[in-house]
Amino acid sequence: MSSKPAAAMKKMFFREAIALAVREEMRDNPDILILGQDVGPFGGSYREFDGLFEEFGAERVRDMPVAEAAMVGVGVGAAAAGLRPLVSITYMDFMMLGFDPLINYGAKLRYKTGGQLTAPVVVKTTAGAKGQGVAHSQCIESWLMSVPGLRVVVPATPADAYGLMKTALRCDGPVVYVDHKRLFPVAGEVPVEGGAVPFGSAKICRPGTDLTITTHSFMVRTALEAAKLLEKDGLSAEVIDLRSLAPLDMKTIVDSVGRTGRLLTLEEGQITTGVGAEVVTRVIEHLGPIQFTRVGALPAPISSNRILEAACLPDAGRVATAARLLQSPKKLVSSY
Amino acid sequence: MLYKISVPQVADVEEIRVLEWHREAGEAVEKGDLLVELETHKAIVEVRAGQKGILRKILAESGNWQAIGLPLAVLSESESDPVPEDAQALADLPVDFEIT
Amino acid sequence: MSDQSPTAKLRMMKLIRAFEEALAARPDHGFQLISSGEEAVAVGLCSSLAPQDQLLTGGRSIGPAIARGVDPSRLMAELLGRSSGTNKGKGGRGHIADPASGFFGAHAVVGGNISIAAGVALALQMSGKDAVAVILFGDGAFGAGALHETLNIAASMRLPLLFVCNNNQLSVSTPRSLALAPARLSDIGIAFGIPSQTVDGMDLDAVSKAISGALAHVRAKKGPAFVECISYRFASHSTTARETRSREELAEIRARCPIVKQSGKLKAAGALDDASEQDLDRSVAGAVEAALKFADASAMPREEEALQDVI
Known about the structure:
Chain A has helices at 14-28, 52-56, 68-80, 99-106, 109-112, 141-144, 158-168, 219-232, 250-260, 275-287, 306-312, 316-327; strands at 9-13, 32-36, 61-63, 84-89, 122-127, 151-153, 175-180, 187-191, 203-206, 211-215, 237-241, 244-246, 262-266, 291-295. By secondary structure, chain A is of the alpha/beta class. In chain A, the strands form 3 sheets. A 7-stranded mixed sheet of chain A has the order 3-2-4-5-7-6-12, sandwiched between helices. Chain A is globular. Chain B is mostly beta strands and 100 residues long. In chain B, strands 3-6-8-1-9 form a 5-stranded mixed sheet, with no helix packed on it. A 5-stranded antiparallel sheet of chain B has the order 7-2-4-5-10, with no helix packed on it. In chain C, β5 (170-171) and β6 (174-175) form a beta hairpin. At the A-C interface, α3, α4 and α5 of A face α5 and α6 of C.
């Protein structure tokens, strides 16, 4: 088996990594088109589609009215009929409007038609709290993990924003691609014209020995900050960036917890039926009882109020506190 | 007197990419002159000199990255001041920056 | 539907009626939505479609599927849950699909297939193919946001999409007059600049004419069109739903039978006589019997198939 030459690495902003992946795939595949608000000349709310309208034109980069239900339906239907739409939903909170066409039709299409049809659509959306209020701040990706027929991916770095988008645009079924408002200021190295990241592959972004922190999206950065704090206490945290929620890479997670013996799950969303609840349950199914704790947002809507928002969201300090509690042999109640 | 030009404290930005220098090392600059354009994840920042001087050494060339608060260039009042190895200790040159 | 002669269309209506009656008579009929009384809508619509067009429907799918040319045997097998059915037994009536026959599919969510149909239309538009998408929905879906959002998008993008509203004037138990504000449903087209009309859904020729005219507009790449067909359903909403109308009302409704109407029309014109009609009825009965036989001879899916075709 010949090895591919290493792709050239280039440092770029998170949004540039998305635009690059989409541009490369759109050049390669004329069936890809973008549907969304402000995706055309405006280049996307976060400039994540910068330059694509200029290169591919109004036929393939289409500004749509604010009508998420129909817009997702059009994307799903067009996918079922042979195109590869990328439907962009600026705020994940408004994905809910598109749940019927995405979940009741798109995710079930292959099954309900006995394999005759499938809907290769990518629904890209931006989650996370950043001072915009209760209906513009949610992280609801855990709600989607349990939908049979749906894949859910969550890049936390520019390289993965690029790599997961490439894979998403080549997938033969519906994919939900969730990025995060607070990731857009981030810059990182990206393998240009290389590096498609497969689904179902988590990444150990910081090796460690005393506990495993599994997390995704912006919280990966929080976890890494917490790991630095813990290092000062002589605690070595292994941080796993999940990258893919459906399918989940249980091998990497189980392997890690098997070594460290302790699991802290971290997410910005709610811990009730959250990503962590699923990770913990599956790890225990594999390894038997382990010490664990789940960290997530407080069970409240996330206000635009600076003080209240900060009070609700996990930060490095809170994660480190939870990790230290995990070291005690006492039985733990899931804490925030 | 020597100064450093640092990446301005633009809100919500962690690091920038240097887009284009508009003055070269050795050139005299006046207050208000456009020195360099920086690219953030959202927009372009125009950095203008807040006082006159001579641009002595560019530390981050076009295409390079630099974090907020870290040095981009060295500027001095007179062309004979020796340029130090480490610019971090220098005083910050006042600059005006505009986000476009 | 390849043969569009009046006799062929009459036969098709009779086939739908006989097929659905045979299905409903079975003890294992399952949860079905029958379209007795609405055959002229299905046949008037489908007889005007070209082979490359794609039809999407809501949950009252059996009549339109038959009219579109889905094989009655594979359809019956699907309705009776057999793995030899169009959807391997996994969709049932609510999700019948046979895109190769131009029946892109039914979808059981009320109004749920409307924006999907616009997506299909977009794909057809971008492919450059001379084909249109058609979405058939009932008055029950008319109040859904999905319809209004899709009308806007279809008009704005000039999609090759034909909206056909089969207004049988009842949504389960709710009369349309109680649920829907517009005096005439097709007036919705005015708001979006879409050419629209309302026709008698019990009159096969009226439906055919209206559909043909609307299709010509859509095929000329002038954007979507809207046809409302006013019809009557002879039975209750579904095989489990209670009937809400009185015996007298039902008798009056059944007197409007589109099949009897069309048969009488052809006989008056000398295009049909009792003997040739009996031939049609025999042919239809034979097709229905063959469909039942095929289904009964087919196996149910194996348990393992529950996890196939998921992703």
